[in-house]
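Open question from group meeting: does this chain pack into something compact, or does most of it stay loose? Before anyone orders reagents, we agreed to write out a predicted structure and look at it together. Recording both the input and the output here so the notebook holds the full record.
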Amino acid sequence: MTPKPRSAEYFDQWYADKQAAPQVAEIMNRHLGLPPDAVAGSVPAAAIDEIADGLRLSPGDVLLDLACGRAFYGLEVAARAGARLIGVDFSAEAVRQAAGQARRRGRDAEFATGELTASGLPGHSVNAVLCTDSIQFPEQPEAAYGELRRVLVPGGRVVLTSWEPVRPGDERLSERMRRVDLGAGLRAAGFTDVEVADRPQWLALERAMWEEAVALDPGGDPALRSFRDEGVRSLENWGRLRRVIATATAA
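Structure tokens returned:
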């Protein structure tokens, strides 16, 4: 059975809870090597150079951070290249926090609400797309890959990070995670130069993070409880998922 998709309202509350619980960010940033003041996700600091290299941005280019969350990674990559950032997420609270992070970091960026499968941007309007740890969420994955291709100019670049099953079709995983196949999704959408690479070193950092998370006493704090529960689920599936980064070119 396909898991019921979580709504924008669910994520609005999830992001609001996280903002009210700085202990979550402190633990994540410490394990992932991110700046103490970063409001980020589960991609480690060591990946940012690799993401930037994969996107191949030039000064003045437009980078779309799709399903941007708080947009830390998009802000960092765009700033390094002198590119303009557009961040899109279906959570209005995520967009609000992303805009606040951009102001705190002195970065010029534009943010809007939109779907991973329907960003609201014109076709062929951006030079590169970044999507960190979110491509697995849509009920129709092909629509998400198609949106990546639609908004990119010919020759534009995409970088995705996610998890994939170690064993395709592993029924111990949720249906959403069983079906993740970045290479197949990108090729079916018309991308070329598709490369998908394992990053076990990212998993090692995540494991230490989740082990600290599951040892927490969350009390009545919803963000700490959610963080601990995510750690429990992640450790239960340990060894069944590989950490990957994918790059490709829009034909």
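Observations to bring back to the group:
Strands lie at 62-66, 84-89, 109-113, 126-132, 152-165, 191-198, 241-250.
The first strand starts at residue 62 and ends at 66.
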